[in-house]
Amino acid sequence: MPTNGLHQVLKIQFGLVNDANRYLTAESFGFKVNASASSLKRKQTWVLEPDPGQGTAVLFRSSHLGRYLSAEEDGRVACEMDRPGRDCRFLVLPQPDGRWVLQSEPHGRFFGGTEDQLSCFATAISPAELWTVHLAIHPQAHLLSVSRRRYVHLCLQEDEMAADGDMPWGVDALLTLIFQSRRYCLKSYDSRYLRSDGHLVWEPEARACYTLEFKAGKLAFKDCDGRYLAPIGPAGTLKAGRNTRPGKDELFDLEQSHPQVVLVAANHRYVSVRQGINVSANQDEELDHETFLMQIDQETKKCTFYSCTGGYWTLVTHGGIQATATQVSANTMFEMEWHGRRVALKASNGRYVCMKKNGQLAAISDFVGEDELFILKLINRPILVLRGLDGFVCHRRGSNQLDTNRSTYDVFHLSFRDGAYQIRGRGAGFWYIGSHGSVCSDGDLAEDFLFEFRERGRLAIRALSGKYLRGGASGLLRADADLPMGEALWEY
Predict the structure, then answer these.
(1) I need a labelling partner for 348 at 20 to 30 A (CA). Which of 7, 404, 408, 440 fits?
(2) What does the pLDDT look like over 164-189, one tens digit per residue?
(3) Which GO terms of the molecular function aspect are on file (predicted)?
(4) In whole angstroms, what is the distance from residue 466 CA to residue 84 CA?
(5) Alpha-carbon distance 434 to 450, whole Å?
(6) Was domain 13-135 assigned CATH 3.60.15.10?
(7) CA-CA distance, 202 to 208, in Å (whole number)?
(8) Domain assignments of the chain as residue spans, ordered by start
């Protein structure tokens, strides 16, 4: 099957947090490093790279500077080398509580300290040399078993997670990484956590928390007994096996989770490819053949729709729409226009997609009317994590308002009704617009919000007032933006 960017492995980026709860920071001025920042931003983001010498050592590259962390023999540390040298090699020593110790490979000393007093000169491990790994990527993704080349998904009938999916299709393939007590949990779309014995539980108990380990750009999940998650048996049931060292069976890729959507036409029926190659609005229920993976081109902002049958929607002769293309081209691109609770799609011939009398879709209309409007519903985000330019959206302590600049994130629950979404947070309270445009999260009644998918991996959220939700200098979520851009776009 051609990938065309469908399966994009996420580059693992992370922050390192010391015992004083401060992040390792690479400064532009003088290429100095310190541990003074209280939140995870660009300067606090690092990428782990394998040592080119194929040894067990690793390299830490600043995502912000593109330079490497180094430690000299006298313990001085910096982030100034644009090419990795001998002093850039570190050994990662995972500790029982999930934290890391970084040891200079050539000099044997341990890296740590506080504020701007960082060094790599300690001969013994103290709390100052312990670092917590905090992933900087968006936490909702697909998990691919490296050995089986199969995707992990929730199996409701067997009440387990299994690595047996050829494609990450449907909501059951969505996993959310939850940062909990210096470790990570794997949360399914129905808000349950994977325990190391393979059972799913409702609370993030100790046996459902894992230490992350990186190996050659892959992820491994170590449980509290030092064993690693792996697909077990013919069904690929995900649970901790016997191995206390990660091999190929214990390694996973994180892949970006693209939006999967269903569309409903003016005849109140689902758009589908169930009855052949023609894309038609002729089904009464939403299953795999009514689900489409939607990708937005970063340059043109146009979108493609990929079906479970392995084909993209494409414009064919006489304006017809068929799910037969195996490669992305101009004819597979559709411009999306937002009309309140509905969307219209314009094909490469400059005409709008409409529903014909027999239910088939065709790009033959010059104007937008009832037959050119569709309900577009996002189906693979029943739980939602939002990240803006300054950080994640999270409940403000002691308040009903929401912060937009946090390093940690809250998980919100989505429901859908007639082209609009309702967002529910902690304590089952709904989002609503309060005084002066502030977004509150303790509503008794659901308020509608419109989602507009504007860029790849980013959406705009529009309140009923017509204003878009944005972050800003105050760090509060507000509905006061006129245009869906910049601070009004959210990674989801």
Answers:
(1) 7
(2) 989 999 999 999 999 887 789 999 99
(3) actin filament binding; protein-macromolecule adaptor activity
(4) 51
(5) 17
(6) no
(7) 10
(8) 13-135, 140-256, 260-378, 383-491
